[in-house]
Amino acid sequence: MAASAVSRLVHRAKTAYWSGSDRSRDIQIRRAARPGTWLYIAFLCVAALATDYLSVHPKLFLFFAALMFVQSLVRGLLVYLPRRSFSRTPKWENAVSFAVLAAALTWGSFLAVTLLLYGFSAGPSLLLLVCTVGTTTGVITAYSPNLILLTADLILLLTPATLVFLYISGPLGKSFAAVTVLFFAFLLWQGRLLNNAHKRRTRTLRLLAQRRKELEERVADRTAELSWAKELAESANRAKGDFLAKMSHEIRTPMHGVLGMTALALENENPAETKACLEDIQTSGECLLQIINDILDLSRMEAKKLFMEQQPFLIKDCIDRSLRVLYLKAREKSLAVHIHISPELSEEMVGDTLRLQQILINLIHNAIKFTDEGSITIAACREAMMGDPLIHVTIEDTGCGIPEDKRRQIFEAFAQADGSSARKFGGTGLGLTISGQLALLMGGRIWVEGNASGGSTFHVTLPQNEVARQSEGRVAHA
């Protein structure tokens, strides 16, 4: 029964010891244990020089001196060697604790034996008592971070002397024993106060370290965001600069055509040549008007002042009108144009037919411009997404195609898939940007896919029901 109780007590002490183990406590105990490593040896040297202990009891004195020397040597190896020599495991801390407790037990036994040999009032006893009191006051400072180790060290250091005080009969012995017990309780109380202070300091340091880490992470994230925003702003400035340079060229070209053809028409007296000059002037003016309209549409959309009109229309008529504008361009390049419209779209729908036609003209114009041979296929059908009907229009061409890494870039303002395409085919590069914004304003979206045989397919989807509800709401408001 007694062995079982002792085993449970030891297990409970080890559990409490390891559960409270932390790096800051370990480091503090390691540093505090260094000055006291050779303290007991120094006390023995003082006792040998100041008393007759070594001459009267040489064997006993040398026995305890040898024990203290070996224990001090082990403690010195543990606390002075580099920390990397020992992994941070319970084995290392067990070795340090064992060396500390063994030294306390040896010194306590030496004091008890001295009290039995010399009594209370002899010089060796008084000297060792003074050394023990000084040692205990240093112990509470050194080992207060670990209350279990501190308690065990004080018990082993003071218990042998207390037992000797009780063994010696008389009021003086009992008084010494009572004083020792009170001194032990006082030391434990002071140790607990220091232990609580250490815990508060440790929590504060951990909290500060955590806050510092959080602040460093926030600063790093903010720095990354600012770097990304800076790069984005610089990229936008470069793109706007390129756009303005290209736009000035696009505006000057038709203006030169207008001014040049006007001068020729004024100087030419031949009606046929004058008519040709006037036709060129009209073409240049229409081109210039288209550029101005694109710029105005883009500025209105950025200012969120472009509103959608709601009126009934047929998708077939909208596609026919869009293709009629560009049919001559397709015929000039000998491109076949195919139209497939689902019978489900034979009923009238409500929406902004002019803006939808603007989207289709931009997409069909791009398909004709970038296709040298082959065909262009325009298809329209009705689809359902999450129960809502959609109008799905596709424009497929057999042209040069768009690289996969450029398919999202072509819908961005002031950007093109390839700057050389503007020089080869002309254009401002705003058509797809405007078309994408218009589709978003109408509740739909635009995207592009590549074809296996070459070319590209542009997709436009518009939520039919949502457009109809918007129309009904506006009519009711009116």
Layout of helices and strands:
Elements lengths: L1 H18 L3 H11 L5 H12 L2 H4 L1 H23 L9 H29 L4 H21 L3 H21 L3 H97 L3 H32 L8 E3 L1 H18 L3 E6 L7 E3 L1 H17 L5 E11 L2 E10 L21 H7 L5 H11 L3 E6 L5 E8 H14 L1
Parallel strand pairs: 2-4
Antiparallel strand pairs: 1-3, 4-5, 5-7, 6-7
Helix pairs in contact: 3-5, 5-6, 6-7, 6-8, 7-8, 7-9, 8-9, 9-10, 10-14, 11-12, 12-14
Plain-language structure description:
- It is a single chain.
- The protein has 15 helices and seven strands.
- Strand 4 and strand 5 form a beta hairpin.
- Strands 2-4-5-7-6 form a five-stranded mixed beta sheet. It has a two-stranded antiparallel ribbon with strand order 1-3.
- The protein folds into three domains: 2-168; 239-302, Signal transduction histidine kinase, dimerisation/phosphotransfer (DHp) domain (Helix Hairpins), CATH 1.10.287; 311-477, Histidine kinase-like ATPase, C-terminal domain (Heat Shock Protein 90), CATH 3.30.565.10.
- It has helices spanning 2-19, 23-33, 39-50, 53-56, 58-80, 90-118, 123-143, 147-167, 171-267, 271-302, 315-332, 353-369, 419-425, 431-441, 464-477, and strands at residues 311-313, 336-341, 349-351, 375-385, 388-397, 445-450, 456-463.
- Helix content is 70%, strand content 10%.
- The model is unreliable at 13-21 and 466-478 (pLDDT under 50).
- It is rod-shaped, with a radius of gyration of 48 Å.
- By secondary structure, the protein is of the alpha+beta class.
